[in-house]
Amino acid sequence: MQQNQTDETRRTAGGGRGSAGDPVRDWQRNTWYGPAPSNGNPFDEPEDAPELRDSRSPNVNEHMGDFWNQEYQGYQYTGSSPKTTQAAREKKRPEKKKRSTGKQRAARVLAGIGALAAVLLFLRFGVFSVRAITVIGNRDISTEEIIRISGIHWGDSMIRLNEKQVRERIESDYRLQFGYLKKNLPNQVTLNIREREECCWFTYGGILYQMDKNRMVLSETESLFEEGQDAQGQQVQQETADFRRIRSGLVQLKGLNIRSGCRVGQRLMLAQPAQQTAISNLFLEMKVLGCAEIIQEADVSNPSGILLVTRDGFTVVLGNQENLHAKLRSMLLVRAELIRMGYTSGTITVTNPRSPLYSPVK
């Protein structure tokens, strides 16, 4: 009976389940029901479990060995141990390497930028820079003057050479028309231009003006006549040499209704827009067919009835501006046949180019 009571007490003290209605176990209550320990050694077993002494090492029970003989100083913080210090140093070393690597990386980047800049400068000033300029299409104006007008200089960057700016500079000179700009890498430039050609002349206010097919006034001449002597030695007015040259090589325009622009370097403006287009189209087709040199006069006073006079005495009725190419071609064929037949004058009507008409002089 006493033994059972003792076992019950042990189960309760050792962590039994407690009462049925209490969910907290006895061992969770931190409660000790047994007798208090008789000594102060924490390694000694309590009096209610003497059988555990036999399973312990004698060194533990008798306090034998180096562990028990060393002086106990309690917990002391002595800083990092040598091993810890060495480990910390090992940890710091990669940081130094990282810093060193960062500096090396920055140095490599700067070196790369410097190398790239050197290559670009070499390409800019040593390779892709203008070293030769070729001008095509000039006739009377020298190559040096055209290069000066274009604004292209020796040593300019080939890459930054702007065709639009070159065009504007070229066409700012009324004598020139821009063709194209070709970059022949690495360092050659080809500049194609066209000089404006005088194709006709007219008089206005006693002054003779020469202009191209686009009505750009290119020159003016005031001295048309001079004092001279005829075959009998009498004083007469005769044409100057310049006037004779102009008359023999260019077509005289008649019937112009001038509004403005009778100055060198300006485009002639006419009161009738139909006259402006008639002049441009007529001289363009004559240039294509190569017949401008046989035409002496062109009367555009009536744009619906354009008249031509050849240097050999034929009058040509073209009519309006439609089918000018076909009309001029028909005129050339009829004229050639008439000359072959011995005619040297008369009127050729080509208003219908497929059915030309010829009227001899009465």
What does this structure look like?
α8 (273-289) packs across α9. Helix content is 35%, strand content 22%. Among the domains are: 132-195, Ubiquitin-like (UB roll); 200-229 and 238-359, 3-Layer(aba) Sandwich (Rossmann fold), CATH 3.40.50. It is α/β, with parallel strands linked by helices. It has helices spanning 2-13, 58-62, 66-69, 82-127, 143-150, 163-171, 241-249, 273-289, 324-340; strands at 132-136, 176-184, 188-195, 200-204, 207-211, 217-221, 225-229, 235-239, 251-254, 258-260, 269-270, 295-299, 306-310, 314-319, 346-349, 357-359. Strands 6-5-4-9-12-13-14-15-16 form a nine-stranded mixed β-sheet, with helices on both faces. A hairpin with an 8-residue loop joins β10 (258-260) and β11. It contains nine helices and 16 strands. It is elongated and about 170 Å long.
**What's the overall average pLDDT, rounded?**
81
Spatial strand arrangement across the major sheet: 6-5-4-9-12-13-14-15-16
**Spatial extent as radius of gyration:** 58 Å
Largest β-sheet summary:
9 strands, mixed
Give the helix proportion (percent range): 25-40%
Short description:
This protein is α/β, with parallel strands linked by helices and 362 residues long. The chain is built from nine helices and 16 strands.
